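note to self: dont lose this again. the chain is below, predicted strucutre after it. 353 aa total, dont forget to put it in the shared folder this time
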Amino acid sequence: MTNPTTDPTTHPRTTTTATPPLLRAEGLRVTFPGRHGDPPARAVDGVDLDIGPGEIVALVGESGCGKTTLARALLGLVPPTAGRIAFDGAPLGRSTRALRAYRKRAQLVLQDPSGSLNPRHTVYDAVAEGLRIHGHGGDERAAVAEALARAGLRPPERFFPRYPHELSGGQRQRVVIAGALVLGPELLVADEPVASLDASVRGEILALLLRLRTELGLAALVVTHDLGLAWNIADRVAVMYLGRIVETGEVEQVLTAPRHPYTQALLSVLPEATGAPVVLAGEPPDPSRIPSGCRFHARCQILASGEAERAGVADACRTRDLEILGGTSASQVACHWARARADAAKTEASGAG
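---
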C-alpha cells in the first residue's frame, strides 16, 4: 500500500510520547434538528480525540459518517451540543474574541480550492485576507511572500497579481495552504485536501504537508475517505462510522491488521488489497435513527456470515452498545466480535503457557 511519491518509509512517523495533546476533544456530540418531526440527527455522537504537537491524524470514513462535522466542531465552526474541546491545555471558549484568537492557531484547508478562492481576488489578496482580518501589524508583503514560498510557489512575487483561473489545480491548493500558513498556525485541519486534484498532483500536496510538519512542527487532522492517503501521510488513524470512532491506533497497525469489520471492508476495496472486496449491504443508517447495539451491525459482514454467532456475540452485536473509544494513541476497537477474538487468543496463549 505505497505511493512512489509519498512512500511511508521515506518519512518518519511521530512517536507516541507523554507530551500533552495540542488538541483534545472529550465526549463530543453535535446534533442537528430533525426535519418534519423526525428525531434530531446525531452527526457526531460521542467522540474522544487527541492530536499531539506535530502529529498527523487521519480521520477516515464514508461520506455522511460525520467526519466533516467533527472537523468543523474542532475548529469552533459548529457549536457542540455536548462535550469539551481544549487547545494547548485550555478549554475552547465560545465568545467571538476567544474563537478569533483560536483561529489564528488552528486553520482550515478545504477540499475544493476553486470554491475556497474568490475569483475576483488576486493571489496576494487571497493570502493576505487572514492578516487583514486579524490585524497583522508587521510587513504584510513579506508575510504573504513567505507563506507562498513555504507552500511551494516560488518566486512568490510572480504569483502576487495572478487570479485563481490562471492557476492549475495544484497551484490553487497551494494558495489555499499559503492562506492558512500566513497566520503561523500550530494546527491544520485539512478536509479532503487532495480529493479534487489529479493523481499526478496529489503526491506533491501530501509531500508538502509532510514537509510543513518537519519544518514548522505543524500538527494536522486530515479528513479523508481514502485509506491509502492515510497510509502515506498519517501517524495515526481514526476510523469513523455513523458519528463515532470505531477503530483507532497507529496507522501501520490499523491498516495492516484491521480489527473492525468496517475497517476491513474499507481496506478490501483498495487496489493493493488481496482477496475479494467486501461489499457492504445498503447505505449507512440515518443519523436520526441510529440502531441499537453496534451501530454497524445492520451492514456487518461478520454478523451476516454467522461468524459473530459462532463467537457467541451475535446478540450483543444487535442489542448492546459499545463505549466511546479513548482519544489517545493506543490501539482500540469498538467491536464485540473483535474483542471476543482477542479474549479467545489470550486464553489460548495462557493455556499454552
